[in-house]
Amino acid sequence: MMKNSLSRRFLRSYKKNTAAIFFSFALTFLLLTVLLTLIHTNFRISGI
User: Fold this and answer.
1) The organism sits in which domain of life (predicted)?
2) Which is higher by pLDDT, 16 or 25?
């Protein structure tokens, strides 16, 4: 019984960690995309 509750608790925290990792990865990807877009538009504007 003790082992079952322990594994359940571990699974719950594991799911939480996976969500946090996915969230941070998505934020990093979004930040990179925004930075690339800004740099691209800056070069476009300076080109004009």
Assistant:
1) Bacteria
2) 25
Three-state DSSP state, 32: helix
**Can you tell me which residue has the tokens 């691209």?**
40
Distances (CA, A) of 18 to 3, 9, 15, 46: 22, 14, 5, 42
Distance CA 46, CA 19 (A): 40
Determine if the pTM surpasses 0.85.
no
Longest Cα–Cα distance of the chain, Å, equals 71
pLDDT at 20 over 90: yes
For 10, what's the count of Cα atoms within 13 Å in the CB-facing half-sphere? 6
Domain ranges of the chain: 1-48
